[in-house]
Amino acid sequence: MIITIMKGNRRDMKKQNAKNERLRRLLHVIESSPRPDNFKKEPTSPEHNKNGPAIFIAAMSTDSTAGEVSHFAGTARKAGYDGDLVVAVLPNSKADFMAAWTKYKGIVYMVNPDCTGTGHDKVCSFKGQDKKVSINMVRYFLYQWWGAIYNEGALIMLSDFRDVIFQSNPFLYRKWEWAPPVAQLVVFQEAYPNKVIYRCVFNGGWVENCYGTEGLKRVGSNTVSCSGVTIGTRDAIVVYAHLITQQLDPRVRYGRNTTKTNQNCISLGMDQGFHNWLVYSGQLDKYMDIKVYQQGEGPVNTVGAFFGERALLKFDLKTWKVLQGEGKDKWFHNWNGDKSPVIHQYDRFLSTDLNGGIEAHLGMVQNLQ
Q1: I need a labelling partner for 194 at 20 to 30 A (CA). Which of 10, 203, 240, 302 fits?
Q2: Packed helices 270-281 and 234-246: angle between N→C axes, nearest 10 degrees
Q3: C-alpha distances in Å from residue 20, one per residue of 16, 23, 26, 98, 288
Q4: Cβ(234)–Cβ(156) under 8 Å?
Q5: Does residue 45 form part of some domain?
Q6: How far apart are CA 157 and CA 303, in angstroms?
């Protein structure tokens, strides 16, 4: 019995060493690729704390408002998060929007990708890139470049902007469950059974259009993992972001000798299709250990799947006890009763549970400084 255990441990160690070596080699390739010369933070922004933690945000819309910055960065600071908030903004952003990032000590990068088209057909590229990509994919290049600034031990969160608020510091929540050595990358599912890949016209479509019918069969029975918020070590984040961008190449998705193209794959939500493929096909497992949290169980609570006619289980958030409290003192909760550190997709409920705006409901947005 003792000999069997020792052999098993040796096999596990050999497997882990091989995974670490693949990660190291890929990082070397990624870090050898130059960043654009003009990819620099604004001179008045704080310096990066290269030891982390850091949150990366792409707030790349000239329609973004100071109120949205207050909801995101203001609640993060109120929740006790004092790490880096690294944000990409566009030239000609509103003055009060820019001032709000200064107020909350954001590390601001003014980026100016070359874009054509509008809406779902908008595609962009940075200086030195040969091909334009869907606008939602641009942020993964930023994540990769930002990640390279940080030291190996830093923890990083990639986050959507407009539909995210904080109720406590996510980097401190039940850290023993997900931080190294348990895992290097942490991803967060949407609500089961409301969101399963093959039952969702959007997520199923993104996977099938980019990986074919066989690809959908392979991963389609899994609960949707949302690409909007991800946490990981610096090394894992850099490799994850790189692998996402590599999925743009049909030769990577289908094999080097393929004649298939991106004709049906390019769409506004394609990054979530890439994300779910990498998580569930085993591609990420080649390089890192992954922690997959069910909805409402970890530091990020993605709640959007409870909304809409497509939801199989139709109850309001109060009935689910996800949203608890009265008046302006309501809070989102995990299933164990804890207040959820990060709320994602709360904006789905602005005409129902949060009618009148989050200021009329949520305790965390009251009296933001």
Answers
A1: 240
A2: 120
A3: 6, 5, 10, 40, 7
A4: yes
A5: no
A6: 18
Q: Tally Cβ neighbours within 10 Å of residue 345.
A: 20
pTM of the complete model: 0.93
Q: What is the mean pLDDT of residues 84-107?
A: 95
Pairing of strands 300-302, 342-344: parallel
What does the pLDDT average to over 310-335?
A: 89
**79 close to 168: Cβ distance less than 8 angstroms:** yes
Same domain, 134 and 193: yes
Residue in 299, 243, 234 with CA at minimum distance from that of residue 86: 234
CA-angle at 89, arms to 88 and 94, nearest 5°: 155
Asked whether residue 65 falls in the same domain as residue 28, the answer is no
Q: Which domain holds residue 12?
A: 1-32
Q: Residues, the chain, total?
A: 369
Residues 14 and 156 in one domain: no
Residue 46 lies in a domain: no
CA-to-CA separations, 146 to 117, 166, 169, in angstroms, rounded: 27, 22, 21
SS3 of residue 107 by DSSP: strand
pLDDT tens readout for residues 167-208: 999 999 999 999 999 999 999 999 999 899 999 999 999 999
| Angle, vertex CA 294, rays to CA 293 and CA 299, nearest 5 | 50
Beta strands in 114-184 (DSSP E): 114-116, 123-125, 133-134, 155-159, 164-166
| Residues 3 and 99 placed together within one structural domain of the fold | no
The verdict on 195 and 311 lying in the same domain is: yes
272 plus 225 within the same structural domain: yes
Residues 359, 187 contacting (CB under 8 angstroms)? no
Residues 170 and 111 in one domain: yes
Strand partners, 109: 41, 88
CA distance 125 to 364: 37
Measured in degrees and rounded to the nearest 5, phi and psi for residue 131 equal: -120, 145
Question: Domains in the chain: how many in total?
Answer: 2
